[in-house]
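User: These chains co-purify. Model them together.
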Amino acid sequence: MEPFTKHTGVGVPLRRSNVDTDQIIPAVYLKRVSRTGFEDGLFAAWRGDEHFVLNQEPYRQGSVLVAGSDFGTGSSREHAVWALMNYGFRVVISSRFADIFRGNAGKQGLLAAECEQSDVELLWKLLENEPGTEVTVDLEAKTVRAKDFVAGFTIDDYTRWRLLEGLDDIALTLRHAGDIDAFEAQRPSWKPVTTPRGSS
Amino acid sequence: MTSTRGRTLAEKVWDAHTVRRGEGAEPDLLYIDLHLVHEVTSPQAFDGLRLAGRPVRRPDLTIATEDHNVPTVDIELPIADPVSRTQVDTLRRNCEEFGVRLHPMGDAEQGIVHVIGPQLGLTQPGMTVVCGDSHTSTHGAFGAMAFGIGTSEVEHVLATQTLPLRPFRTMAVNIEGTLGESVTAKDIILAVIARIGTGGGQGYVLEYRGSAIESLSMEARMTICNMSIEAGARAGMIAPDETTFAYLKNRPHAPQGADWDAAVAAWRELRTDSDAEFDAEVHLDASELTPFVTWGTNPGQGLPLSGTVPDPERISDESARYSAEKALSYMDLEPGTPLREIAVDTVFLGSCTNGRIEDLRAAAEVLRGHKVAGSVRMLVVPGSMRVRQLAEAEGLHEVFTEAGAEWRQAGCSMCLGMNPDQLKPGERSASTSNRNFEGRQGKGGRTHLVSPLVAAATAVRGTLSSPEDLNQEVK
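Assistant: Joint model of the two components:
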C-alpha cells in the first residue's frame, strides 16, 4: 500500500445521506476477478443522470468526495472502495461511515475522514458556489482545508499510523505468528473442522 | 474488555478468541474459528496470497460455496453470462489450488453461504465466524460472534486465521412479550431497525434478549440476527439455549459422544452475566408488533402494514425529510396512500434472511388452496439445495407450483440480482430479502421488504397484504 500523508484535489459535493454500497457500485458490476476496472460501475445508476455531480465539469476530475452521513452502509463489498479509487478518489469525507466500509477503505489506502456534519455542510456550500475548489487533506495534522475553510477530522490512531507508513496488515500480523501457534495449540478439540467426517 | 464486573455474551466470545491484546491504539488480534467463502468477494484475496507466496493457513477451518452469481434455472447448463461464469470458475480453481472444500452449483450441499453453515452444523455457539458478506451476522443466532468483512480481510484470514480488530461496543435489544397472529421474526427486526435507524447500531454488537426471543426457533433467530447489519451493527447475537442445542444435535459437523457433552457444557456458560453492563439498551414490546413492511429505500423506512405512506412534510428532521422525499420519488408513492393498496408485480420468497425451510413452510401454508394473482409473478428460491430437497419431500413445491409460483434452484437470486433474476425498471416487488436500496433487485426496481407470510398473502391479493386479509376471500 502506498503511504498517505497529504492529498490535494478537486472536491466533489455529494448531497446525499445513506449512500449505500449498492449505490456506490451495483451488484452487476461486481463480477470482475481483479481489483481494477471498477470505475465504470461507480455510482452507475446516478451517472445516467446528466445533472449528477460527477457528470459536470470540473467535478468530473474530483478526488475528494464530500458526502452525507452514513456513507457506505449495506454490503461488505470492497469493490465500493476499489470503484472510488479506480475512478480517482483518494479521500471521502462524511460525518459518519458504515463500519465495514471504513475498514475496507483503511486497508486499501482510501482515506475515510470523519468530519462534523456542520463542516460537511460548509464544504458543500463552498464547493457548490465555487466549483473546482481544491481541498487539501492532511493526515499528519488531521485537517481539511479549502480556501479559507479549515476543519479537523477524526480517524482512529492505528489506521492513521498504517496509512502514513503504508503498511500491509498481513505482514504486521505475521510478526505475531508465534502467538497464533500458541493460541491454536490450546483450542478445544471439539471445535469443528470443515473437512468431511471420515477423511483425514 | 477485562474487568472485575460481569461480562456480556459478546465480551466472553471476544475474550476467548483474543490471540494477543493490542497495546495503546493497536487492535486486538482475534482468532477466527470458521471462514465462509463465496465467489464474489474472494478472487482478489486468493490473488493476493498467490502474489505474496502465502498458503491458506487453515483450509480445514474454511469452506466455500457458489451462491451470489448462480442461476436458479437450467443449472445443468454452463452459466450463460460469461463474466459470472468466469467468477465461478475462478473460485473453483482457487479452491482446488489452495485445498479449500467447495460446494459447487448442483452439489447437494450447495446454497447460500449463511444457510449452509448452520445446516451442516459448522456454525456453533461461542465461535467466531467471518465471511466476505455483510449478512454473516446470521450466524450470531447460535451465540457466535459472526460478522462480514471486506476482501482485504478475507485475504488476511486466509493467510493468518486471525483479524486485527478493536473490541465492539455492546447493545442489548430487549424484546419481551408474546407475538400476535401472523407476526414473525422479520417483523421484529424491521421494527427494531425502524426504531434505532440504519446507523443506530454502528460499532455495536446487538444482543437480542427477552422472552419473545427465547420463544423463537433457530430459523427465526437467524432471520433477526441476519438483518443486524441493516441497523449498521457489526454483529447480532442470541445466547444459546436448549433450542440451539436441539437444532445442532446430530448435524453433520456437530460434536459427537463425549465431545458433545463437553461442548454443551461450554456452551451453557455463554450467557451475559447478571451484573454485566451494556453500552446501550433498547426495549420493544412484542405484543404491540404487527406485520411490518418498508415503504422507502432503506430498511429503516418501514411501518406497520396497517399504516399509510408517510408525508415528508410532517417529518421535522431535515435530513430524514429529504431522504423520505427522495425515497418516495424513487418508489413512485404518494403520501397518505394506505400501504395495503400498494400493488406489486413480483413476489420474491427466498434469501439468507427468509430462505430456510420454516419460511417456505409458513408461506406454503398461506398459499395452500389459493392462486397467485394474475398480475403477479412469484419466485420461490430455496436458500440451499438441502432446503429444496426437504421442501420437496414435504410436498411444498407442489403447493407453490399449483398456486402458480415458480419453484427454483438454490442461490441468492433476486435478493441482489447478480444472476438473471432481476426486477425490470419500474417493477415493484414484495420481497422477503433484506435490502430495499435503489436498484438493489435490478436497475430501477422498487422493493418492499416483507415477511414470508406477508409475501404469500400479497402474491394472492396482488397488493401488500397479511394472511388475515385472505380470510374473506373465497378459496
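Chain B touches chain A through 86 residues (CB under 8 Å).
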